[in-house]
């Protein structure tokens, strides 16, 4: 311990994998990435044929209202992340009929604020589309039509990841975690964030927060998710153009469930872990944390991965005193830097008394097994009173900040209490 490093950077073509390499009480040399999804560009705006009632026609109520449509009629080279929008102020989109040249209709839905209509999947590259827009404006219902063509498939794309898997059950602190390589430039983050959709059932407001270098963004609520919540996520980034000349590489969806409430709290002052299930104390576990030279991190972390048996190999540590190869039972990863909860039968005599680890939470074999059988990925653990604060981005650190601090990391304004769902997924 004593350093935070993440070698083995993500590459542009990422493969989904359900395992995270373990290195144990030291930096993770090959943290893999999980495929995820990137902003529609600034679409051109054009004027469609006049729409609405026309003066002098039966039932007319005044001059026709003209609605502008984006992309403009005749536009070419549009991103496949393009959304259909009405540019006329005061017009709210209610429906879009988007079809290909052979008449096939594209599925999609309006944003909840009616500002645009979002295709349910990326558009096809090099394809001609016709959009017929229906909306409501000051003169009542309006319609307009635009035909446009999408761009060819780009050669330069980002790598992106989504750490959420279909039909899995996670702990109440599980954030929606997206990752990007290279990081998203600050000027692009608002556009990218608009294409990252989250729904919760039952509805619970939340917000996005960007890590400072733009390589990760987290979505969470003001409080832990309610047990039984269904998270439905679409990271709709394929084809999104970025200011660095790259494009989003892929869309990714996931739907997962939140399980029972399970929480671990560790106090360095007492060297004890208090375990809560559904708000009730169910066990107290003696622990040994990191010694002063390699302290454990104070802050709220979540279980990121579980391995019933593995090997911790820290032979690449710059400090010879921290190099070892050890077989480990019941390992639960907390940080990318190498902090875990795990069985440590060699330190039982110290557990509850003093800190001797390289930064991990050492517990007895029986307690490690008991915890391992009950925890879920996404369960929170809060450690207090150590010599080191948790570094943002060293693991899924969405809960290391207060809600007021967390919303400051959003690239878009966040309503009081958080934002709700922005799209019917």
From TrEMBL:
Domain L,D-TPase catalytic stretches: 262-384
Disordered: region residues: 32-86
Pfam families on file: Big_10, YkuD
Residue ranges, compositional bias (Polar residues): 58-69
A GO molecular-function descriptor: peptidoglycan L,D-transpeptidase activity
GO cellular component terms, A-Z: extracellular region
Active site (record annotation): 342, 360
Name assigned to this protein: Lipoprotein-anchoring transpeptidase ErfK/SrfK
Lineage, uppermost ranks: Bacteria, Bacillati, Actinomycetota, Actinomycetes, Micromonosporales
């Amino acid at each position: 311990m004593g350093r935070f490093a993440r070698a083995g950077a993500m590459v542009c073509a990422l493969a989904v994998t359900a395992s995270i390499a373990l290195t144990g009480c030291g930096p993770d040399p090959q943290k893999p990435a999980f495929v995820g999804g990137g902003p529609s560009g600034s679409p051109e705006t054009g004027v469609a044929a006049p729409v609405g009632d026309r003066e002098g026609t039966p039932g007319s109520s005044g001059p026709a209202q003209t609605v502008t449509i984006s992309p403009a009629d005749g536009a070419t080279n549009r991103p496949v992340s393009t959304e259909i929008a009405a540019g006329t102020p005061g017009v709210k989109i209610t429906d879009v009929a988007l079809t290909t040249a052979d008449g096939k209709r594209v599925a999609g839905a309006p944003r909840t604020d009616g500002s645009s209509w979002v295709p349910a999947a990326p558009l096809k590259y090099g394809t001609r589309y016709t959009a017929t827009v229906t909306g409501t404006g000051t003169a009542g219902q309006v319609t307009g039509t635009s035909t446009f063509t999408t761009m060819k498939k780009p050669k330069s794309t980002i790598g992106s990841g989504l750490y959420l898997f279909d039909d899995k059950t996670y702990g109440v602190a599980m954030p929606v975690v997206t990752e990007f390589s290279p990081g998203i430039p600050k000027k692009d983050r608002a556009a990218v964030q608009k294409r990252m959709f989250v729904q919760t059932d039952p509805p619970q407001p939340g917000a996005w927060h960007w890590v400072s270098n733009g390589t990760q963004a987290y979505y969470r609520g003001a409080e832990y998710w309610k047990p039984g919540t269904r998270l439905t996520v679409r990271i709709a980034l394929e084809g999104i153009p970025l200011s660095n000349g790259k494009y989003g590489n892929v869309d990714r969806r996931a739907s997962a469930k939140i399980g029972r409430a399970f929480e671990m709290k560790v106090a360095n002052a007492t060297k004890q872990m208090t375990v809560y299930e559904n708000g009730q104390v169910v066990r107290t576990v003696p622990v040994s944390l990191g010694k002063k030279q390699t302290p454990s991190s104070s802050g709220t972390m979540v279980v990121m991965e579980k391995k019933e048996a593995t090997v911790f190999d820290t032979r690449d540590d710059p400090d010879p005193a921290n190099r070892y190869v050890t077989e480990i039972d019941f390992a639960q990863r907390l940080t990318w830097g190498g902090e875990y909860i795990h069985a440590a039968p060699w330190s039982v005599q110290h557990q509850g008394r003093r800190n001797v680890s390289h930064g991990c939470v050492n517990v007895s074999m029986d307690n490690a097994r008991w915890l391992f059988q009950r925890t879920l990925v996404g369960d929170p653990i809060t450690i207090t009173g150590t010599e080191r604060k948790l570094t943002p981005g060293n693991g899924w650190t969405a809960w290391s900040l207060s809600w007021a601090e967390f919303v400051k990391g959003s690239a878009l304004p966040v309503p009081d209490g958080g934002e709700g769902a922005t799209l019917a997924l």
